[in-house]
Amino acid sequence: MLAVTAVIQVDDLHKSYGATRAVDGVSFQVERGEIFGILGPNGAGKTTSVECLQGLRHPDSGTLRILGLDPAHDVREVKRRIGSQLQESALPDRIKVWEALELFASAVPGASDWEGLLDDWGLTAKRNATYASLSGGQKQRLLVALSLVNSPEIVFLDEMTTGMDPLARRVAWGLIERIRDRGATVILVTHFMDEAERLCDRIAVVSSGKVVALGSPEELRREHGGATLVRFSAKIGDGGFLKKIKDVTAVRIDGESVEIEGTGAVAVSVAAALAAKGLAPVDFEVARASLEDVYLLLTGDTGDGSDESPVEEAP
Ligand SMILES: Nc1ncnc2c1ncn2[C@@H]1O[C@H](COP(=O)(O)OP(=O)(O)OP(=O)(O)O)[C@@H](O)[C@H]1O
Ligand SMILES: [Mg+2]
Fold first, then answer.
1. Atom of ligand 1 nearest to the CA of 23
2. Which residues neighbour ligand 2 (ion) by CB within 5 Å?
3. Does 43 sit in the ligand 1 pocket, CB within 6 Å?
4. pLDDT tens digits, residue range 114-146?
5. 20 to 30 A from 223, CA-CA: which of 12, 93, 125, 248?
6. Chain segment 178-216, per-residue pLDDT in tens
7. If you measure from the C-alpha of residue 158 to the centroid of ligand 2, how many angstroms do you get, rounded to a whole number?
8. Gap between the Cα atoms of 182 and 199, Å rounded
9. Alpha-carbon separation of residue 299 from 93, 96, 129 (angstroms)
10. Do the beta carbons of residue 171 and residue 195 sit within 8 Å?
11. CB of 15 sitting under 6 A from ligand 1
């Protein structure tokens, strides 16, 4: 059943460019107030999907609803109520930072106080600088700030932190959480697993134009990350008392080295069982699949760009 709080609904979206099937049957919905992540390899169809949602591209087929509106028809209304991070090339080189903010604010009745955005995004000192003179990360911060001028109900951020230094990224994360805490919904396309893990309430993993997994970071790890491994050194005999634990699926013993495979809260159960026997191994360690492990497993991404067509070299 469709939740009444869904602000975005995508059903069986298809979009091709010539022979390239960029989006090949994508479906998901986003609840109000979520930070919804979209992860996937280069060319997976992430940008195409979010551009269709914003009414910037026309889908070949499928149903899209954003704030109850059809982005292909209610273009102005959608534009008024969403914010979108612009592409790097979208601003003229000579425009000054304050002029860009002023320009964007003047186009929106009741626009938010852009002076506050200067401060939030660490651009106060660059107020009078031209766009061309900004560093890559500063440009990026300005483009995000501009997407917030109309106090949007939904913000689309496509690779928001690319080019930002580590501190700027952390600051940006805090600001994104603030946007969400004020009740807005955030769609975050990113290649950074730490960013997705920290920020996203739910994530859609997209590969070759399809959603291959959807859930909270924790759900993705649990459902697709395989077993939890617990390792420690202790004399445990044949380990019979550990094999009896519900979440334990395997016990491997090699002298004093023990490796336990299990599910759920297996590490806690094993630790408790050891403690009950007066055992407290100092090298007790727990290994779980990271979001990156899960991502690589799901997308088969070898990192060599093999999903792209080979580029022919000039003779
Ligand atoms: N304007 C276009 N004309 C032709 N093909 C396009 C166009 N835009 C995207 N494509 C192709 O569609 C596919 C999906 O591209 P898209 O930009 O949606 O991917 P993405 O998931 O955003 O990738 P990235 O992580 O690299 O940003 C790619 O194969 C791409 O080459
Ligand atoms: Mg993209």
1. 14
2. 47
3. yes
4. 999 999 899 999 999 999 999 988 998 999 999
5. 12
6. 899 888 999 999 999 999 999 999 999 999 999 999 999
7. 7
8. 15
9. 38, 41, 42
10. no
11. no
